[in-house]
Each structure stands twice: as structure tokens, then as C-alpha cells.
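Translate sequence into C-alpha cells.
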Amino acid sequence: MPIEVRPASVFEDVRAVLGPKSPTANVCWCLSYRIPSKLNNELRGPARGEYAAGLCRAGLPPGVLAYDGDEPVGWAAVAPRSETTFARNRKIPHLDDLPVWSLWCVRVRPGHRKQGISHALITGAVDFARSHGAPVIEAYPLDNGDARVDLTMAYAGIRRNFERAGFAHVADTTSVLAGHPRILMRLDLR
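Result follows.
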């Protein structure tokens, strides 16, 4: 069955991909780049999931989910850069004043990796941004060459996967994740 990518508007499906086994755990819920640092540090345990649930109920879903049939198997965070901490990030340059969208997290559930789901998620995130009027979408993946990337830190994606989706390397950054430099890649949607 082909992988289908849909807007992440069903919280239970987002929970299946991003949520912790223990409801009191302090997992990211993909909020670290979405909300101000102070709020990110204040939200603990169940409050993080409740905040994510609110995002799913909002007018603009917080990203996209990949489905294998009815099972949610992957997630990609995508939003206007102005609504993320990338709007103020000093390590990742701003190239112009376009209302750019950011794609900053790609996650595939264990047991579903190495099946092309991350590629479907990147394509689905691009389509989602385009359908909401984004003129450009950018990502900040790891430039890891052929080096292995720790799965915990692979959420930013890797350069090769974004190149395959048509993104171009447009700038270096001073951001480093898991020992690998992050680069700024863009895809023009106009």
C-alpha cells in the first residue's frame, strides 16, 4: 500500500508518532523550535502533549503525518518561519524578506524506517506549504556526507534526502547538531 501524507490535524495520530510511552515524560513533541524558549522550558510532562493537541485543533495544522493505511508512521514539522524560533535564530541566516516556510523535523517510527517514508514526508511537507501559499520552503539538515547520524539527532534530516526532493544548498550556518554542520537548503515554490 502506498504511503499517504496528510495534514497533522488528528492529535491521537500525532501522539502515536511523537508521544512518549509514559504520559509524564518530558519529550519534545516537536515544540523546541516552534515556541519561545521560556515557554518550551516551562512546559513539562502532560502539558507538552496538551500544547501539541491545541496546535492540532488550530486552524493551521502543525505539520504533516505519513500513513501506511490507517496507521500513522511518520511526522514532519512545517510552518511559516515567522511562527518558529528560526525567525530569531542567530545561527541560521535569513537570506531575504520572503515569507519563507521552515521544515525542521522529519521522524519515522521504528519498524517503518528504510521504506522511503522520510522522502514521502518531505514531499508532503512541501505540498502542504505550497497549498498554504508559501513562496519558498527551507530546511536545515545535517551535512553529514557518508557519516552515520545518531537516530535521536537525525530529526533535522540529511542533506542527501533534501537534494533528492529538489532542495538546493544556499547557505552555510553556524549550527552544529550531533557533530555535523547544519546547512540551509531551499526549494522555490513559485
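Note: The mean pLDDT is 94.
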